[in-house]
């Protein structure tokens, strides 16, 4: 059961071979068993989850089931859910119970899904290892001495360890794709504006995008069908016709059954295979490319000449926006407030000094600096110009190819604590993922083999705006022909 | 040394939308603290701003009314600073690209027309309110006002005296109410000014160092604060000192300005485009639509009154000083089917006098335009004289009823019966032989005395022009 796809679970529920309450309880039991080691979940609330599950069972009994009715979903603790602690991995919000639902949460609830719990993350989603959170590091289910990636590491570890059938995360510079790659699961960051940001605690508003994390491309599509959609409460939400992201999954591009991806042009950027890429990851991605060719895809060499600038530009823009977004955490209205202070300034200073962790402070400092008088043009404005150049690179590339394929990360999961003393080294791990956020493009990671230490390797597929269905089609066809996505960590069966 | 004062004003006009500029919460004044602050106004984690189109429409209306350029694309920016009544830690405002650019406003200062150029007008949200009393050494925060839409209207440094600044502020106040974008309620903070004041020796081109006096919420405070500040700066300079650029507050009890913060303490607001809001795009069609719905503006109306109704510049100016006055006037002359000058003089004379004595606005007048028309109609029809009409007006003001009823009840109908008047005048001439002789000897004044006697004999009800006529005829005879 814990390896079942959403479709299979849905069928079991529909046939009444299993109730949502039973399914939810099984996962809760499994969380109780495995979570103490993994630290993937921050909050579970059996009573609330089971109440939702029973309501779902009633819907199913009434013949009103939708594809996600009764399915437990793990929520990254960045999504506000009414009545749930919503901490964003921070001491600052350790006591914050949200009085409202995020748009995504509202949609999942309306679709009959069950909130299985809130998952661990880097504090305010700032990190690539899920180590910066106030509630301790997430462990990688493949090797508990390694990180699960970040910032959606809790959601990734939960799906990888099969203690959640599916999860939701957010991706500002790779925070869905990178942990998905490091834990051997699938994760999708949609086109900016496809998923409403309302109720998603903001890190960097122009880059943040929510998305699904699952065991397969097929499951991602089902999740995205519910998560996507216009929301008038988010001014950057895009008003477009409703889309079925599953519609192309089983569509073959040619009549030749052995070549379902016949004619699909896969762009391979030379910049993504140069220095810095681990040999193990490179080999696994190259093997995947060969597999895509077997399925009929055509390999096209492309250039993304400004991709080396994406990490520097990202680490100006994201902290700049974050420094402003996090100003609301001031101890005045909700969340943490220092216990003792003499005056207003001291209240601010102590609250923020005690409430935020080191990485968050570092980024607030960087962001404040790059927006300061006299530095704005040199940093923020220049980074915005680079951002446009990066988007232009992709626009050029998509004249030559349909999808872009490369590694999601330079290496496999690294040891816990091994990068903590070198933030710049850690930032450079985002080298392949930040560009999609800067350009607002959809991108996803799927497992494609194993590298050093028997740890999972992910490949990244990126597409043009609104090409999610096409990306999912390519990924699904690849997964029909391979079984990397079915592998799971030892001891997790 | 002769000094010249230079003043620029920044005015915050609260836009009259029902909901806030970035949330759906009500903007109604006077609610209990924090009941009109929704999740967005409180800046809960994860909430996002959505722009109120009504605020944009009002900003465009203003821009068109002052002949400004409407930016087809403008940008909302974040102004970052910490303050307990600023929930997000930043204010959403417009910085580099405001929605309205340029424009000007003309007004009368004494008898001279003055034109003040506008730099810009931009949309922004108001902050909440900090309450420093009643909280035992702590402060209370009321976020009802947080997110209220404001239009900040900035002038060039074109004013040269407190009088000019007040005239501009009054003209602006009248205009924003005229076009219905702001209720202009200064007690509730709907219209407040910051004054940038500097002085320089007469004839010098460069501007002196300025001080900004914040939050002046009455015309009187504006005038007093500027006058105080000008004296302070001149005294400082004449004593060999220097003006320090700073922000000052006006204390109306002491009638003084005092320093709030110096330029050195000024915040670095770290403005940057708000990534939660897309650039504001305004189409040509929208602008034209709003233009077509604009009411006739005061300047155009004033000019029309002078041209079509042959009113004096003064009367036309007074009658177009606010939309309520103009509406009253137009309603009045509409009911009378003309009588432009008569209507104008009664509004600017009797009505304004009575309103002023009672401390009322024209909108609160106990005498509506239709009632006043009823009175003026009696003059037109020569039922009563203008002099009697003033008594009737007083009775109407005191709520004694309509003009016709009062005239009937009090028997004020004037005597126009020639026979009756001739009998009265014969009596007057007989009783005042001395005056008659004086008149005949060429003393014009004596004629007036005879008219007065005739009026007295009719107890004021005699038709004055008829009395004049008959008297002249008889004296000539």
List the topology elements.
The complex is a heterodimer of chains A (493) and B (477).
Chain A: H1 6-14, H2 20-38, E1 41-43, H3 46-61, E2 72-76, H4 103-110, E3 114-119, E4 139-140, E5 143-147, H5 153-160, E6 167-171, H6 177-183, E7 186-189, E8 209-214, H7 217-227, E9 265-269, H8 279-294, E10 298-302, H9 310-325, H10 344-355, H11 358-370, H12 377-397, E11 403-407, H13 423-428, H14 434-439, E12 443-450, E13 456-463, H15 468-481
Parallel strand pairs in A: 2-3, 2-6, 9-10, 9-11
Antiparallel strand pairs in A: 1-3, 4-5, 6-8, 7-8, 7-12, 11-13, 12-13
Helix pairs in contact in A: 2-3, 5-6, 7-15, 9-11, 9-12
Chain B: E1 3-14, H1 39-42, H2 53-65, E2 69-70, E3 73-74, E4 76-80, E5 90-94, E6 100-101, E7 104-109, E8 112-125, E9 129-131, E10 140-142, E11 149-155, H3 162-178, E12 191-201, E13 211-216, H4 219-238, E14 246-251, E15 256-262, E16 272-273, E17 280-281, H5 284-293, H6 298-308, H7 313-319, H8 323-336, H9 340-358, H10 369-380, H11 386-397, H12 403-410, H13 418-431, H14 433-440, H15 445-457, H16 464-476
Parallel strand pairs in B: 13-14
Antiparallel strand pairs in B: 1-11, 1-12, 2-6, 3-17, 4-5, 4-16, 6-8, 7-8, 8-11, 9-10, 12-13, 14-15
Helix pairs in contact in B: 3-4, 6-7, 7-9, 8-10, 10-11, 13-15, 13-16, 14-15, 15-16
Q: With helices defined by DSSP (H or I, 4 residues minimum), what is the helix count of chain B?
A: 16
Largest sheet of chain A: 11 strands, mixed
Look at the helices and sheets of chain A and give the structural class: alpha/beta
The proportion of residues in beta strands of chain A is: 5-15%
End-to-end separation of chain B:
71 Å
Distance between the termini of chain A: 10 Å
């Amino acid at each position: 059961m814990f390896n079942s796809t959403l479709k299979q679970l849905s069928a079991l529920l529909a046939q009444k071979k299993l109730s949502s309450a039973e399914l939810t309880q099984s996962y809760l039991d499994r969380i109780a068993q495995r979570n103490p080691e993994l630290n993937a979940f921050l909050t579970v609330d059996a009573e609330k989850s089971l109440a939702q599950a029973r309501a779902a069972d009633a819907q199913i009994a009434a013949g009103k089931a939708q594809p996600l009715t009764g399915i437990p979903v793990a929520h990254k603790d960045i999504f506000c859910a009414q009545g749930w602690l919503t901490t964003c991995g921070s001491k600052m919000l350790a006591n914050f119970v949200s009085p409202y639902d995020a748009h995504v949460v509202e949609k999942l609830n309306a679709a009959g899904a069950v909130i299985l719990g809130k998952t661990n993350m880097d504090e305010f989603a700032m990190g690539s290892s899920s180590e910066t959170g106030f509630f301790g590091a997430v462990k990688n289910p493949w090797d508990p001495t390694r990180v699960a990636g970040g910032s959606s590491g809790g959601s990734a570890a939960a799906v990888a360890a099969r203690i959640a059938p599916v999860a939701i995360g957010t991706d500002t510079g790779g925070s869905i794709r990178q942990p998905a790659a490091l834990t051997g699961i699938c994760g999708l960051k949609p086109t900016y504006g496809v998923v409403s940001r309302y109720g998603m605690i903001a890190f960097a508003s122009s880059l943040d995008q929510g998305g699904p994390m699952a065991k397969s491309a097929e499951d991602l599509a089902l999740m995205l069908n519910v998560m996507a959609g216009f929301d008038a409460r988010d001014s950057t939400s895009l008003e477009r016709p409703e889309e079925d992201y599953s519609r192309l999954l089983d569509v073959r591009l040619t009549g030749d059954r052995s070549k379902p991806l016949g004619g699909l042009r896969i762009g391979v950027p030379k910049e993504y295979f140069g220095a810095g890429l681990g040999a193990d990851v490179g080999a696994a991605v190259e093997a995947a490319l060969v597999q895509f060719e077997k399925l009929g895809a055509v390999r096209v060499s492309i250039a993304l000449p400004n991709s080396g600038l994406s990490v520097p530009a990202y680490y100006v823009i994201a902290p700049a926006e974050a420094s402003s977004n996090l100003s609301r955490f001031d101890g005045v209205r909700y969340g943490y407030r220092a216990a003792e202070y003499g005056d207003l300034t001291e209240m601010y200073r102590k609250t923020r000094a005690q409430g935020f962790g080191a990485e968050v402070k570092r980024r607030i400092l960087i962001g404040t600096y790059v927006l300061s008088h006299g530095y704005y043009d040199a940093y923020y404005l220049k980074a915005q110009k680079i951002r446009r150049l990066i988007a232009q690179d992709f626009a050029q590339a998509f004249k030559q190819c349909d999808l872009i394929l490369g590694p999601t990360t330079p290496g496999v999961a690294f040891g816990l604590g091994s990068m903590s003393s070198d933030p710049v080294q850690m930032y450079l791990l985002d080298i392949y993922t930040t560009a999609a956020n800067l350009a607002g493009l959809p991108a996803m990671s799927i497992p494609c083999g194993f590298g050093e230490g028997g740890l999972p390797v992910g490949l990244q597929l990126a597409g043009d705006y609104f090409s999610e269905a096409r990306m999912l089609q390519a990924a699904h066809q690849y997964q029909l022909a391979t079984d990397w996505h079915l592998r799971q960590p030892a001891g997790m069966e | 040394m002769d000094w010249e004062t230079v003043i620029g004003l920044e005015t915050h006009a609260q836009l009259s939308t029902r909901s806030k500029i970035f949330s759906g919460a009500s903007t109604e004044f006077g609610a209990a603290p924090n009941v009109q602050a929704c999740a967005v106004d409180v800046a809960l984690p994860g909430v996002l701003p959505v722009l109120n189109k009504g605020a944009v429409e009002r900003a465009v209306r203003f821009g068109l009314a002052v002949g400004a350029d409407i930016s087809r694309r403008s940008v909302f920016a974040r102004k970052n600073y910490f303050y307990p009544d600023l929930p997000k830690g930043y204010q959403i405002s417009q910085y580099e690209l405001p929605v309205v650019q340029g424009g000007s406003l003309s007004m009368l200062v004494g008898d001279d027309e003055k034109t003040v150029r506008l730099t810009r007008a931009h949309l922004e949200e108001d902050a909440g309110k900090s309450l420093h009393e009643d909280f035992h050494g702590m402060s209370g925060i009321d976020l009802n006002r947080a997110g209220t839409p404001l239009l900040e209207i900035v002038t060039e440094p074109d004013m040269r005296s407190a009088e000019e600044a007040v005239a501009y502020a009054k003209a602006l106040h009248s205009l924003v109410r005229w076009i219905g974008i702001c209720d202009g309620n200064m007690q509730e903070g709907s219209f407040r000014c910051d004054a940038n004041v500097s002085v320089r020796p007469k004839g010098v081109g460069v501007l002196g160092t300025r001080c900004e006096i914040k939050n002046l919420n009455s015309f009187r405070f504006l005038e007093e604060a500027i006058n105080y500040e000008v004296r302070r700066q001149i005294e400082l300079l004449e004593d060999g000192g220097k003006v320090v650029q700073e922000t000052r507050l006006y204390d109306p009890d002491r009638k003084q300005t005092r320093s709030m913060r110096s330029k050195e303490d000024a915040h670095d607001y770290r403005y940057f485009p708000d990534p939660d809001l897309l650039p504001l795009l305004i189409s040509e069609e929208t602008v034209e639509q709003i233009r077509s719905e604009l009411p006739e503006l005061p300047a155009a109306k004033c000019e029309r009154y002078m041209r079509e109704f042959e009113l004096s510049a003064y009367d036309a100016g007074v009658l177009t000083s606010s939309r309520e006055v103009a509406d009253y006037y137009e309603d009045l002359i509409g009911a009378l089917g003309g009588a432009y000058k008569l209507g104008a003089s009664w509004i600017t004379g009797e009505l304004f006098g009575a309103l002023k004595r009672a401390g009322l606005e024209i909108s609160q007048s106990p005498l509506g335009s239709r009632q006043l028309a009823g009175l003026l109609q009696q003059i037109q029809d020569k039922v009563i004289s203008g002099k009697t009409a003033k008594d009737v007006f007083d009775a109407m003001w005191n709520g004694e009823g309509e003009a016709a009823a009062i005239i009937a009840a009090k028997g004020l109908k004037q005597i126009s019966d020639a026979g009756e008047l001739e009998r009265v005048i014969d009596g007057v001439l007989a009783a005042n032989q001395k005056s008659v002789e004086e008149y005949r000897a060429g003393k014009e004044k004596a004629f007036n005395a005879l008219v007065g006697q005739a009026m007295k004999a009719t107890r004021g009800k005699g038709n004055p022009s008829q009395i004049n006529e008959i008297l002249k005829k008889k004296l000539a005879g």
